[in-house]
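Troubleshooting log. The previous structure file for this entry was overwritten by mistake, so regenerating from the original sequence record. Sequence copied from the archived sheet and checked twice against the printout by T.R.
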Amino acid sequence: MEGCILFFPFMSVDAFFECQEERLFFIDVIDGLGKVWMILGEFHTNEVFENYVLIDKPQSSNEKRIKII
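Regenerated output below.
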């Protein structure tokens, strides 16, 4: 999970997504300067965390204050 900015149980978003192992999806986010970034997310399953969502860090890790919209 190195390099991720968000990691959370699938139950947090199960009303919005259908969890399919290794399925990718995109989320638009806005940083503190108002710049829009497209960030890649992926569904995972394992014995410890069960179903979870992993959101990769943006292309430029120097940008700060990113929020999901």
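The longest strand covers residues 36-46. Archived copy saved in two places this time.
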